[in-house]
Amino acid sequence: MADELRARLNGEVIDRAHPAYDGARAVWNGLIDRRPAVIARCSGTADVVETVRIAQKYRPVVSIRGGGHQVAGSAVCDDGLVIDLSGMKGVHVDPAARIARAQGGVTWGELDRETQLHALATPGGEISATGIAGLTLGGGFGFVMRTLGLSCDGMRSITVVTADGTVRVASRDEEPELFWAARGGGRGIGVVTSFDYGLQPLGPEVDCALVIHPFDRAEAVLRAWRDATESAPDTVTPELLLWTVPADPEVPPELHDVNCVMVSAVYGGPAGAEAKAALAPQRDFGPALLDLSGSLSYVELQSANTWRFPDGDRYFMKSHFMDELNDEAISVLVDWYSRRPTPDCLIVVRTLGGAVARVGPDDSAFAHRSARFNVSIDAGWQNPALDDEAIGWARSAWDAVKPFSSGSYVNFAGLGEDAGELRSAVYGSHEERLERIRAAYDPEGLFAPAARRP
Questions:
Q1: Cβ of 337: how many Cβ atoms within 10 Å?
Q2: Is 111 left (phi over 0), alpha (psi -120 to 50) or beta?
Q3: pLDDT (tens digit, 9 = 90+) per residue, 254-282?
Q4: pLDDT tens, position by position, 285-334
Q5: How far apart are CA 21 and CA 14, in angstroms?
Q6: Could you give the angle at which helices 431-441 and 419-427 cross, rounded to 10 degrees?
Q7: CA gyration radius for the chain?
Q8: Which segments within 80-154 are labelled E, that is strand?
Q9: Is 0.85 topped by the overall pTM?
Q10: What CA–CA distances, in Å, run from 229 to 191, 219, 372?
């Protein structure tokens, strides 16, 4: 298979004897240590077509790598073939039509850099190193999702190589079932080589609230914040984190790494007096340790937290959607955060609604349009000796929150062994339709292992 790939691809083919092998198989999450047989580093869509056709002939286990930033490390597989798009970095912005076309290896930081030349944006993730492909296909949370929607809502069309080696364009008008599946349930439909996104005016400056409260007031702040989200306009996307104060030069050294409650919110429109007034309620939850609210560039916003999640550290994340955040659930969250095994463990509560909820519940594969919150239990650590303790903490905290859950988010869904347990919680009533679409485009199951991963 490797020899045939080398003969037919313009891109590099990397096997276990290749000097670049260990670097090519590494992904963002240092917990993932998989050894594929062959990595096909595609240079473009034609390389992907050849790779898929050769995969049909040899039938290896197949995984697909875009940005390589996914928690479960599904970009790489043991003993199989990795279709690697990480070198496919093309971005073209048409500011007049307000459309951006980006290839499958592009990260959000790379896309934002190009669209912000024209003060335009499509709803992206919260970490600039995240790949556009995995985040978009799984739904895609971001700092302005209540205003602009999920990442998959900004998607106008995709170019995808399906299991028969055919290049298809999927949109609302062409291959509509394939496009439906790609919007929130896109694992296992093929190899998406490029995305067309609609762009909205946003930036270059945005206004944000960021207020850090002492942890001994955590429950009171959470309750007040929850109540304030009820009346937050769609232009504001609030978020709350149980975490530690960052070791940032703007922060007094004596507060570095202190437990805290971080209340943040972004205004999804022009910076100025109207934005500051809309954000004001997010800054009014009692005495604070620090108020770092203000204006910054959209590109800076999108990369502000990236340094806190460095490549090669170890990560495990699971999440719950919640229709309400009652006082009992708040107590559970605060209690489990206080048991965290390392300072890099955190709990994030994101608000949905707004533009997310305005999409019909069956108009995309994303199955949780009506949820009000998503709670993510995120373990981070460096020492492999802490693997069991850190993963155990996150799983136990997730179990404790499960009674309040209305479903789970595929992009924060644990590791491979969690996939079966979570399938119905992730896809809900859309699971059967997704399976029919996957079977129609991949009757022999070439991408079935990818579809089964978190």
A1: 21
A2: alpha
A3: 999 899 999 999 999 999 999 999 999 99
A4: 999 999 999 999 999 999 999 999 999 999 999 999 999 999 999 999 99
A5: 6
A6: 110
A7: 21
A8: 81-84, 91-94, 99-103, 120-121
A9: yes
A10: 38, 15, 9
